[in-house]
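Students often ask what a holo structure prediction actually looks like on paper. The answer is less mysterious than it sounds. You provide the chain, you provide the ligand, and the output is a string of discrete structure tokens encoding the 3D arrangement of the protein together with lanosterol.
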Amino acid sequence: DVHGAVNGHATKRPRIEDRTDYSRWRMRDDEGRHTWHYIEDDQAAKDWPQTHADKYYLGLPLELSELKPAKKPLDAVWNGLTFFEKLQLPSGHWGCEYGGPMFLLPGVVFAWHITKTPIPWYYATEIKNYLFARANPEDGGWGLHIEGESSVFGTVLNYMVLRLVGVEADHPKMVKARATLHKLGGATHSPHWAKFYMAVLGVAKWDIVNPVPPELWLLPDWVPFAPWRWWIHIRQVYLPMSYLWSKRWQAEETEIVVSLRKEVFVEDWDSINWAAHRNTIHPNDNYHPKTWVLNSLNWVLVNIWDPLLRPKIVADKAEAWASDLIDMENKNTDYSNLAPVNAAMNTIACFARDGPDAFSVKRLKERLEEALWLTQEGLLCNGTNGVQSWDTAFTIQSIMDAGLTEDPRWRPMLLNALKFLDDQQIRENVQDQDKCYRQQRKGGWAFSNKDQGYAVSDCVAEALKSVIILQKTPGFPTLIDDQRIFDAIDTLLTYQNPSGACSSYETQRAGTWMEALNAAEVFGHIMVEYEYPECTTAVVTALSLFSKHWPDYRAKEIRVFVDKAVSWIKTAQRPHGGWYGSWGICFTYATMFALESLASTGETYPNSKYSKRGCDFLIARQRQDGGWSESYKSCETGEYIEHPTGSQVVMTSWALIGLMKADYPDIEPIKKGIKLIMDRQQPNGEWLQEAIEGVFNKSCMISYPNYKFTFTMKALGMFAKKYPKETV
Ligand code: LAN
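The corresponding structure tokens follow.
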């Protein structure tokens, strides 16, 4: 199974079948590292039986018995936990699909193709199945994310993926997708990142790609737009992109690439005026049109700087520094890298630099596997190498909110979860932290695992809260000693911006005016860190919980931090009373957090106009059936928009949690919502997947499948604790 290469090499395409045998797939959890395995040998398959978790991920029947129907909300939590416990993985955390974005798998498959990595038939087959299952039914194209309308970005990238994994161009689904792509203007109308990938693959010429000069990395730190100030994701994507752009590096030409040149364009390939299409883009892809500032800058770079003024010595120096920074990223993450976008691009850059047999390329490819995930629809690429620490923290907290941490029934599960968080705490800062522009991380937690090792303000906060809660519960051991807790606090305290708010991975290093240089077109809010009610609240509540147990440690700083943060929360409230969410959809998610922030300093519905307005905002949007149903469109437009498919349990839970945190005085609307959540629970204790839950960069949605367990149980548990006498 080797890729076709025109110049002499093998010409074999990946083998592709209708489907794989789902009883042969297993997910291995190696202390929080996930890899999927297809066992073709019968005996080996018997020796490694499928677990409940495997079957659940694959959509195979679990054959669980029905539980005693829940009469009270606490029974529903109990039933939910009975189900969810079966999905806990050996190392103590919960795994899940983390799909949604439709531009991640393409990076991985392009990296495989470029590095001449054989694609096993069972991968090829399930990638095909996933993409066919996720093609928009009306036009056969793909959007930026699974719920989005077809765009050139989604369609051209995934069309190329399908061809590279072995689907023929005359397959009816490919004919349909191609027609849509052509109707949207063809590949010349794609956004910057697709143009970059096409240039690297050799499907397009580099002249169609707007400049990505590595020289920016040489700017002194004081320059207001120097890349170290950018949001970490755009910075880490720009890095390999700039290296490859500078070299105008192109992969070896393969038959399939030659064929793609004829398929994805409307124009005749040889007659395309590449440079003239640098800024051609279809409106569906143009979420954030480039500003005149960026367009003028690009014009100067393309027409004057690059052809006339670009000294080779400086370019060499810039490439060398970009290359060093890539090495540091690899070293700091043991080649996991920040996310599969920069991981795929770094794989290509290292291949270009080090050749096919280099350790860098091998290790990056190995690690890339950890982002792949199999669902009943097929194989996809997760947004990160998992959601391990994040979901584990929320699971612990939902059990705490239900008052069940002391119940011996759940101790083994909780103890395993605590052990996981103990193991996953980041114990050291990265080497040469300042040199590679990283922020302090010692004592923190990453969103996924410690290998990836990027501490995030709210990931540190949620994990820390969970550890403190459990370690202060009778019957649990102290696995993380005081010093390690203090390390986490020290790191948390570095996350506050001058405004009082917290951002995600780092504090803000430049103003939001930097968005004027946003070249990605498909995303908003990507150039710098912003201020998030979600992250701010998580840190506030973690610090407050910590202070209760360790009242003396950095007490004054914590008090000042919390006061400033909560004051900022008030300033971020929208006139309609809600808060805009950046990581969950959308106002419902952030309003839940903001109400919790206010409550943490004693501001609730009865005594605070901010809290009251937040509650009124939520109540006004409750639906007839008692649920809430916000659509991802809110994230794009900044206005509250309802999802066409009706109430969602996750959204309903968020709203109820907010209202309960705020001591909303009327129990009736809360009861109605609780009833909806209970009614949706299945006889075996689970809840079913509904609409997508998460978002990033305003325009791209991402799935958080475990939220339908963690937040439902949290809402039900909080209700049970707050109104112990109520039945629903
Ligand atoms: C995530 C996932 C987790 C998320 C929360 C912790 C929920 C949030 O509160 C802070 C930001 C963070 C860590 C986050 C940032 C952006 C990520 C990494 C993602 C949404 C998952 C995927 C996304 C990443 C940017 C995807 C790659 C896309 C690019 C544009 C490079």
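The pocket of lanosterol is lined by residues 233, 237, 339, 341, 383-384, 390, 447, 456, 458-459, 504, 523, 534-535, 583, 696-697, 702 (CB under 6 Å).
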